[in-house]
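Open question from group meeting: does this chain pack into something compact, or does most of it stay loose? Before anyone orders reagents, we agreed to write out a predicted structure and look at it together. Recording both the input and the output here so the notebook holds the full record.
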Amino acid sequence: SIRMKNYFNKKQLKLLYRGPSYVAPCQLQFLEKQYQPLQQQLLVDLVKKYPNDKKIFNMIEEKTKEEFFKLFSLSNGKIPSTILERAHNERQLISTIQQCLHTHGLILRRISDHTNRFYLIEEKLFHEQC
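Structure tokens returned:
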């Protein structure tokens, strides 16, 4: 068993335990195809509620779509400097972790369950076991 503390400092370990907290804006942006199921449900609901009023129907549909895309648009403004700084710091920590793994020939494996545990294994040993 490899001791994590022999390879990583406290900040690196903290990041590994909790995972990165920054989410890139491109991951928040909804695409047109992702809006389609929501739009279909909206249309069904609008037809039920306003079966004979095409004007209100169209107005609600257009306004909803506009607000939806405005909410998830990158054009809403700049990313706050605190988030950019956090992203930069996390990216630097991730780079130092990757460099350490490469330098020492280690593989970092996360257990895929709710415990959020991970372990280090030597690359050579990992390939022998697989």
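Observations to bring back to the group:
The chain has a mean pLDDT of 78.
The first strand starts at residue 106 and ends at 110.
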